[in-house]
């Protein structure tokens, strides 16, 4: 069973930055009795209804019936699904636990390392059985600060490097086809929960974007991950992203606590270890958030436009279809243009056309999809992002009505 929950002790935030993490953890233990926002696992029909805005509040103890198993690639349904890791080679773990290498791949040193502890993690996946006080004033800043990005001497080189790197760190299209027990609706619920955790611990927006990138890439290189392990994968993705991006990431105990102790510290550490191997320790991935901040440093905008662009970009994390088909730079350009049009009826400025090489025509398809997502945000069951951007910190931009139509539609 997959339980998604965050503790609701929001009133403790004001004093968190002055309290040692060890004391904070003790305090968290005392507050466990308080009501949490909890998410469970829905049945396939409920998930379908939920995605249409017809679902009801998830119960902490709800679960998916195992009466109907799913088959994949013509394989019989069973609880001993094979697990694949597709990177330099394809390693097949049969029901017996014996490792077989596909004829079309070769077993290199990295694949050979997926034994012992990692083997147990793989089999478990397929088995059915920081707070930084400085974030108060700059909660959304990436470590790649605007001061650095604004240096004209390096801005072009930074942009070119990010554009090259984004092609190497993209998840694979249609990766959910390799995970019969995981639906798009489950992923949406997971990302919505990750947003709540990021808010709870006042982490950077870049940490959230990185975590979702890690999650999608991990699921792209594996197969047959069980629904009950999805939250563990998501939590590991966020923990790694926090360690990569934050100055003072939350401690291990706090990540265990966010899952309502559904998983142990040992499980989370083992998943982190396996996660890093699957991604080959390639953690520096360009995100929509990075590109967006770069664009806004080249052509500055008002606070409303800036926050609205960040809001729309964050909404795009919820859906892999259609946004996985676009590069992060295109999504950033679409979010920038949509926000600019919503606030002051302008679009893609000439300065950014010259800087990026992107024309308005190239941005239009993604901007159109973002517009549809923006319009539907209010009626979606998942409201964590919208609630986040209702605060004065973000100029309450999620309350700004989306334009009824775009000028080119």
Report on this structure:
α13 packs across α15 and α15 crosses α17. The protein has helices spanning 13-16, 21-30, 44-51, 109-112, 117-125, 146-149, 152-168, 184-200, 205-220, 230-245, 252-258, 265-278, 288-298, 303-315, 328-344, 350-356, 360-376, 384-388, and strands at residues 4-7, 36-39, 83-86, 90-93, 99-101. The chain is globular, with a radius of gyration of 21 Å. It starts with a strand and ends in a 21-residue tail after the last helix. It is mainly alpha-helical. The protein has two domains: 1-143 and 179-283, Cyclin-like (Cyclin A, domain 1, Orthogonal Bundle); 144-164 and 286-399, Cyclin-like (Cyclin A, domain 1, Orthogonal Bundle), CATH 1.10.472.10. InterPro entries: Cyclin (IPR039361), Cyclin-like_dom (IPR013763), Cyclin-like_sf (IPR036915), Cyclin_C-dom (IPR004367), Cyclin_N (IPR006671), Cyclins_cyclin-box (IPR048258). Keywords: Cell cycle, Cell division, Cyclin.
Q: If strands are numbered along the chain, what order do they take across the biggest sheet? A: 3-4-5
Question: What is the succession of H and E elements?
Answer: EHHEHEEEHHHHHHHHHHHHHHH
State the fourth-level CATH superfamily of the largest domain.
Cyclin-like
Percentage of residues in strands: under 5%
CATH architecture of the largest domain: Orthogonal Bundle
By secondary-structure content and strand pairing, the structural class works out as mainly alpha
Reported for the largest beta sheet, the result is:
3 strands, antiparallel
Low-confidence stretches: 7-115, 128-146
CATH topology (level 3) name of the largest domain: Cyclin A, domain 1
Helix content: 40-55%
Q: Helix tally? A: 18
The total strand number stands at 5
Total of domains: 2
CATH class of the largest domain: Mainly Alpha
What would the average pLDDT be, to the nearest integer? 75
* N-to-C span: 44 Å
Q: Please tell me how large the radius of gyration is.
A: 21 Å
What is the 3D form? globular
């Amino acid at each position: 069973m997959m339980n998604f929950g965050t503790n609701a002790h929001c009133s403790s935030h004001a004093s968190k930055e002055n309290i040692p993490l060890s004391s904070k953890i003790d305090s968290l233990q005392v507050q466990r009795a308080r009501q949490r926002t909890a998410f469970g696992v829905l049945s396939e029909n409920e998930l379908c209804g939920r995605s249409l805005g017809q679902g009801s509040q998830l119960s902490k103890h709800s679960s998916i019936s195992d009466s109907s198993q799913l088959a994949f690639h013509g394989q019989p349904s069973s609880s001993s699904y094979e697990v694949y890791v597709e990177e330099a080679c394809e390693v097949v773990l049969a029901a017996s636990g014996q490792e077989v290498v596909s004829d079309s791949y070769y077993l290199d040193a990295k694949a050979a390392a997926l034994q012992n502890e990692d083997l147990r993690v793989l089999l478990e996946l397929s088995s059915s059985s920081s707070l930084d006080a400085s974030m108060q004033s700059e909660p959304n800043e990436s470590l790649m600060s605007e001061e650095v990005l604004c240096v004209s001497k390096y801005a072009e080189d930074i942009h070119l490097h990010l554009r090259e790197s984004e092609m190497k760190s993209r998840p694979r299209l249609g990766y959910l086809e390799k995970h019969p027990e995981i639906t798009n609706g489950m992923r949406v619920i997971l990302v919505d929960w990750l947003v709540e955790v990021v808010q709870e611990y006042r982490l950077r927006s870049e940490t959230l974007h990185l975590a979702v990138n890690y999650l999608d890439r991990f699921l792209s290189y594996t197969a047959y991950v069980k629904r009950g392990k999805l939250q563990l994968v998501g939590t590991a993705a966020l923990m790694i992203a926090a360690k990569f991006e934050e100055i003072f990431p939350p401690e291990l105990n706090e990540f265990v606590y966010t899952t309502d102790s559904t998983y142990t510290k040992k499980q989370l550490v083992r998943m982190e270890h396996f996660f890093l191997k699957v991604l080959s320790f390639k953690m520096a991935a360009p995100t929509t958030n990075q590109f967006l901040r770069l664009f806004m440093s080249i052509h500055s905008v008002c606070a409303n436009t800036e926050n609205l662009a960040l809001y729309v970009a964050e909404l795009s994390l919820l859906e892999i279809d259609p946004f996985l088909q676009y590069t992060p730079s295109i999504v950033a350009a679409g979010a920038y243009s949509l926000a600019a049009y919503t606030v002051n009826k302008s679009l893609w400025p000439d300065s950014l056309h010259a800087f990026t090489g992107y024309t308005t025509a190239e941005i239009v398809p993604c901007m159109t999809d973002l517009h549809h997502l923006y319009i539907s945000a209010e009626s979606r069951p998942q409201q964590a992002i919208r609630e986040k951007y209702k605060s004065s910190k973000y100029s309450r931009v999620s309350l700004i009505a989306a334009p009824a139509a775009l000028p080119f539609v």
